From TrEMBL:
Pfam families: Peripla_BP_2. Gene3D superfamilies: Nitrogenase molybdenum iron protein domain (3.40.50.1980). It comes from the Bacteria. This is ABC transporter substrate-binding protein. The keyword Aminoacyl-tRNA synthetase does not apply. Residues 1-21 form the signal peptide.
Amino acid sequence: MRKQLLATALCLAATATGCGATVERAQDAKPSSSVTLTNCGRQVTYDKVPERVVTNDVGITELMFALGLEDRMAGFAMPDDKGDLRDVPWKDGYDKVTWLSKDQLTKENVLDARADLVFAGWNYGFREDGGFTPDGLKKLGIASYILTESCHNGRGKSARGIMPPLDALYADLTNLGRLFGVQKRAAALIAGFKKQIADVRAKAPQGSGRPSVFLYDSGQDTPFTAGRYAAPEQIITEAGGVNVMHDLADSWTTVGWESVVQRNPDVIVICDYGDVSAEQKKKFLLSYPPLRNVAAVAHRRIISLDYADLVESPRNPSAIARLGAYLRTVPAGR
């Protein structure tokens, strides 16, 4: 099933380059004037089509690959704990583009790569600590684009997210399509993703039959989870569930275990990445005494999805399909 879903995602990602559609070549994109985009609520003008883009993290990198823009890339940075990259729809992109760093981007490796644009996000590369910010890069003559899922929203010093997560995905694909002159390819991807998601939604439980879901990223003293502006919010919703942390006006954030116990999720989704394996995270959840009577733990309804499924990325629709299939196995009344 996983290989079949990946094959479907590959066909969707290749809509403009395979599957019988007209090819748009990114290298032919030569707009006669500058392009102005809305990014994180601000108007940003780009004077030329970037030719040496550097990206930070897997979801951001795969947005470029899904649009066929690897020839416009000078490299990417990401830790090597984000899953097996040999069996993903964009394997060719990883084979072609230089892996610059297994840590976050720095000014030094961006300059070494002679980057003319950095595509990253707040807490996905951009950070005030050390001055690796769009403003700091601008002083070096390097343009930036900020992942929309990560935009600061003004609800606190670090709160992130300004629109529903899938809208953020579509906004970034649309913006990148305009910037690189591959609008048709971006539109085809978005249309394919929306159809794939609609097909899952049509089969999903409705009303009171929707199971409640808690996203567990990491943490034992306090869990790191997803509020309503992180990708899992709509992955869970479109799959037929309800995110128990929907009321948090943030993307990725920390909560207390008491709030998880109080909300008593029917299902727990583990974000699989990092030094602690999904199996180790599951063992912790099943053995942690305060969670003993939580429905998801009592009935051992715990499923793992890859990190790249759960951050803004072109893998989100296939993650919705896989989670949707699982949630349909949860019995009514739970």
